[in-house]
Every structure is written in structure tokens, then in C-alpha cells.
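Listing S7. Sequence submitted for prediction.
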Amino acid sequence: MPPVIIAEELKKTYGTTSAVDGIHFTVHKGEIFGFLGPNGAGKTTTMKLLTCVSPRTSGTLQVLGMDPDTEPAAIKARLGIVPQETNLDPDFTCHANLVTYAGYFDIPRDQAAKKADELLEFVQLQDKRDVAIDKLSGGMKRRLILARALVNSPDLLILDEPTIGLDPQARHLIWERLKLLQAQGNTVVLTTHYLDEAARLCDRLVIMDNGRILVLGSPADLVKEHVGDEIVEVEHSIEIVTCLEKTGIRFEIFGDTVQIVTTSARDVARTLFEHCQPKKMITRPATLEDVFLKLAGRTLKE
């Protein structure tokens, strides 16, 4: 089965600025594929290329077997899009928002009404069916936008920061719905700033920076390849650093924390207690956040 998305040497420039700089990736049917990266990395620009909002400067791009530059209408008819901003129509109720949106896909009104009820139940908003948009919480609005994206039974669902600004309960509900959609055979592409979200949802992901893809793989494989198994963290002090240098344990300093990557946190912790007497020590599994910070850096980017 051919990939749902194929990108080769994909570029997008604005004047002399390369927002997307020659990236390669494929997305396969039925997987959840993620884009991670700091602000300005090129994630949202890539989403605009995939959703036929912005033409590419050069390279090859196929979405659902079609070229966005030559067949944008045919591609858009088969996409479901969850934008970063909340753009529901405030003049309509939840149900009316979905029925009105279905009209853009020439779905008959009686079918649209039935589909709207099914989708409201899917995102657990059936009790808000006839409620005005301004009466909904932020989490309810994001769930309704997800329902709206499913009105046309899309072959590809594209989500730009789908859980931005939501409380943990609302985030988990959307995660559950996305995993259920995947179980039903849907293909999902998403961008996110939440590393736990990417680790939980994505079968594969890329980490981007400065318009380029730094790495591509499954969350578990990326953690193992670029960081390791476990992390030991202790407070940063001259005494601790001097002690670690004497023991020969390799470490890195990040602000007020000394971090040690290891395959056996227990053995490192025992050595630290015996020789360095740290005041505070934390041992934990290595995470996707460690990979992200190692590759994209720890400096804040605006």
C-alpha cells in the first residue's frame, strides 16, 4: 500500500528565509505521525504545505497520491483539519456548527444532521447539542473542532497543536478519541509542543529545527538511540562536580542540575551516595523530552 504522504527534498522559502529546508518523510496509512520542534522550527509551515494552504517552493510532495499544487480541491475534500486556533462559528450551536460545515462538502442536510449527532456523541458533547459556542469551555471547543474535522469522513486527519491550552482531563479525552480513530483505520498527522503527548500518541515522529528534520523514528527508538536508558540528576555544586570528576562518571551540567545518562541508575546512585553525598538525587527513565532538549537545545527560541 503506497504511503499517504510522500515528501522529498521539500522546501518553502519566504524571501531569503528557509521555513522548510529540504525535508524528507513519509506517512503510512493507519499511523499517527508527529512533528516536534521549537517555535519557528517549520512545523506549521509544513502543515500548510500538506493542507494545500501554501504552495511549496521546490521538491516533491504527494498527499493521498495527489500533488497539492495541481489538485488542491480533491485533496481538501479528503482531509480533516484541526487548526491551532479556535475558529468555530459563534452564531451557531454545537449541532448547527457541524451541520453547516457539512454543507461545504455537499453532504445532504438530513445525512449531515445524523452525522452531527453521531460525532457529538463520539466527542462526548451530546448533552451540549443545542448550546451556543460561547457557553462552552476551552476543552469542549477543542473537542467540537475535532468533531467538525470528522464531518466528511476524511482519509487523513491533520491536527496543529490539538490540545493546546487544555487541562489534563480534556487532553486525555482527546488522546483517547485519537487512539480510537487510529484503531478504526484513520491516519493522523499532528504537531505538538507536549512531549508526553507525542510519546503517548505517535507511532513515529520527527524533531525539526531551523526548517530541517533532525531525527525521525519511533519515540522509544529515539530515546534509546540519542539518550539512553536512565537518567540520574543531582544538584549542581563544586563539590559534586569535583567528586564526579574523580569517580570518572561522565556527566553534563544544565543550570542548577548535574545530569548523568546511564544504563544502570542503581549502580550510579550507589556510587554517588558512597563517594559524593549529594543532598538531593533523582533517578528516572530517559524520555522524549531529553531527546528533544539534546537535539534542539535548551535555549529559549522566540
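Caption to Listing S7: primary sequence and predicted C-alpha cells for the chain studied. The chain has two domains: 5-218, 229-285. The longest strand covers residues 17-27.
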